[in-house]
Amino acid sequence: MLISITNTAEPATDLGFLLHKNPSNLHSADLSFGKAHVFYTDAEPHRCTACLLLELDPVQLVRGAQQLEDYVNDRPYVSSSFLTVAISRIFGTALSGICQKRPELVTQPLPLEISVAVLRARGDQDLLPQLFEPLGYRVASKTLPLDPHFPEWGDSRYVSLNLQAEVTVHDALSHLYVLLPVLDDHKHYYIGDAEVDKLLRHGEGWLSRHPRRQLIVQRYLRRKPDLMNAAFARLLDEESAAVEAGETSTEQSALAEKDLERPMTLHTQRLNQVAGRLKELGARSVLDLGCGEGKLLRRLLADHAIERIAGMDVSHRSLEIASARLRLDRMSERQRKRIQLFQGSLLYRDNRLAGFDAAALVEVIEHLDPPRLAALERVVFEFARPQHILITTPNREYNALFPTLPAGKFRHGDHRFEWTRAEFTTWAQATAARFAYQVRFEPVGPVDEQHGAPSQMALFTLPQAVSA
Questions:
Q1: Its catalytic activity (predicted)?
Q2: pTM for this structure?
């Protein structure tokens, strides 16, 4: 099975940075069901095409089976859930919306052309535009003959698919990850609670508004009623969270902040970048401080390498919404043991915060009065003292680029301050020195030459963790 992605925005070879695959090399990886290869058929400034070829071994898949029909099927060449697993494994960093070397590219829409060589439409060729056109794609498909040498045999149930759109690579991969198995209407692996998390994580920002979302959920989850009900309930939660929370003035400010940042999908990229860094650090236990309604927690739960997760927030209502969205009451016992939610304040020492590999504070510190930061520093850096601490906060310099934000105003009505890059660097370096951490900085979101990125992240690490 073969899929190709072409970029024609100069320099087109930026596609290599986004996919984390050098156009000059052949990249191969062994999977449990075959082998995947990434290669480039074009790598010029005006056009760059990356191809993902998946070689499936059907004999290996059914080794030990006794019936011949188990070996004779269309799985080796039809784009299906095998291909989405390969996308997740081979392009996992791009699928998470991370590009460390060129972070400004992640949220940049590109003129992409995507070709899927063979797709089983199962008589649903009319469904192709219904699924992809609402996402901004121009859709073209061609029915493949049963055998080109015997046209009298007629057409097969397979098509080739071509998509064109101005879209980010991250969004394009997310759309393919969800919709290819929907079109094939089959999955080769067990469908459980984790599939709901995958669907909503990769469908974030578009699935809840898609006109065929009911069919997408049904097919992606193989029509399992309990899983479908959980997915629809969580989609409904996302739509009505503001109503459920009473739309207090603080929550209205939070919605206004998200509306302000939405054109750059900053909120999603911020969460993806933090989750990606935690994965790279190999953290087995993670503490989300100021977890809010659980969007980062949902990403952490999907990473099965993380054995212990805790979310703390001062708002009891936010924790209730997080619990509902994560469906804690419906989790398996094994999954439920991985996560704990509790109410608490970052201004007071709390023994429950000790013993974690990593802690994340995503857009939290700016909600505290500056004189109270000293208390937070001791609670997190001195008493909890995880090996790694990730802190993100807005970059005030970037506010000038938001056309609807009045000069001198903060993005959120509850913000007590918003730091420039220099101010954040000064605070982070002083805090690191005081508590014997090392610190490095990363932009979050598209980087403007003059104003920097919309958000900024500091990654604190204990020296012994670096040497290890």
A1: small RNA 3'-end nucleotide + S-adenosyl-L-methionine = small RNA 3'-end 2'-O-methylnucleotide + S-adenosyl-L-homocysteine + H(+)
A2: 0.56
